């Protein structure tokens, strides 16, 4: 598959529909769309799907991979653990290298396991170790609520008060997005009271990509650990977790990784911690050294690497769909996807400025290093009603309180012509 870059700048764009079709015809990734079963509305009409930031569409290969596992279960039952094309006992090991490539990590630093929230709890247990004055956790204000719930629950379990322990960093006055200095200055202020920094690598509300390397460096300078929720980052933007020296990170795989609802999540633990067998963790037998696992010993001996945080055997029926997606990512390459992603979002924003320049505002940062697929569009008034009207016209996006419409043109399956049509539909709704 060719991965020639889509080299575009705003000054090259045209508002003509023919121009958007020309972009699609010259797009080297255009045939990736055929790898997916894209949704239809209740009448059977094909829709423009711009909600891959919430749940990615299904890769066609998923049916075959799932059926193969069902056949193995039906035909071999318990023996499927150790024989067949994909023995279940080592099934999770296949994910190490492709996940490592996606997040910029060594294969031994990543593991596919559990769900995102479970993994966040496991990481908090290991990396938030309050001692003496150093107890505080720093996070971003307006984080996805489940992150707040997870953090505050750990604080309460320790008998502490979240109001005294959790520090929330806010954007500057009147700003929707953060400056890196908002975090680095807050970290410096907390100093030796700070135990952990845990933020979303890409903000779910604005689509802003944070400077994870700078935040990690500042946290370590203060003597704190640093981790990231990458739910909206993985498969969306370039990541270099090992080189950035992050302590840990967690992500789901049902958004940009298109692995299906409730699919197996992922976790990164930097090798300096992953190989530290003395680091406290919750233990269950699947984190045991596989050489000893089936001997049923009384003592827990964690395996080196991120695998040492596993609790139980891999969820095969939720892991198989992830194989379909990761094979596609490897075939195309994240660099090529990133080029098209930036072109798509820039083109959609260009069209919005043409069709509804006064009726809406894109709050996602314009700088390419601060954005991924998602455009967050602020629409004063009835933004929820706008989403409903778009849905009725066959454009699926979503709404976030109080007034933001999120649209995420994803490079694997969305087209430039769809970005063009979406902008015109939104403009017509807003301008009457």
Question: Main attributes?
Answer:
single chain; four-stranded antiparallel β-sheet; 37% helix; Aspartate Aminotransferase, domain 1; seven-stranded mixed β-sheet; 15 helices; alpha/beta; Aspartate Aminotransferase, domain 2; 432 residues; 2 domains
Count of individual domains:
2
Oligomer: single chain
Trace the largest sheet across and list its strands.
Answer: 4-10-9-8-7-5-6
Write the element-wise H/E pattern from the N-terminal end onward.
HEEEHHEHEHHEHEHEHEEHHHHEEHEEEH
Q: What is the name of the CATH topology of the largest domain?
A: Aspartate Aminotransferase, domain 2
Q: Report the uncertain regions.
A: 1-6
What does this structure look like?
The protein folds into two domains: 10-37 and 334-431, Aspartate Aminotransferase, domain 1 (Alpha-Beta Complex), CATH 3.90.1150; 67-329, Type I PLP-dependent aspartate aminotransferase-like (Major domain) (Aspartate Aminotransferase, domain 2, 3-Layer(aba) Sandwich). The protein has 15 helices and 15 strands. The strands form four sheets. A seven-stranded mixed sheet has the order 4-10-9-8-7-5-6, sandwiched between helices. It has a four-stranded antiparallel sheet with strand order 11-12-15-14, with helices on one face. The chain is an alpha/beta fold. Helix 13 (334-355) runs parallel beside helix 15. Helix 8 (212-221) links the parallel strand 7 (194-200) and strand 8.
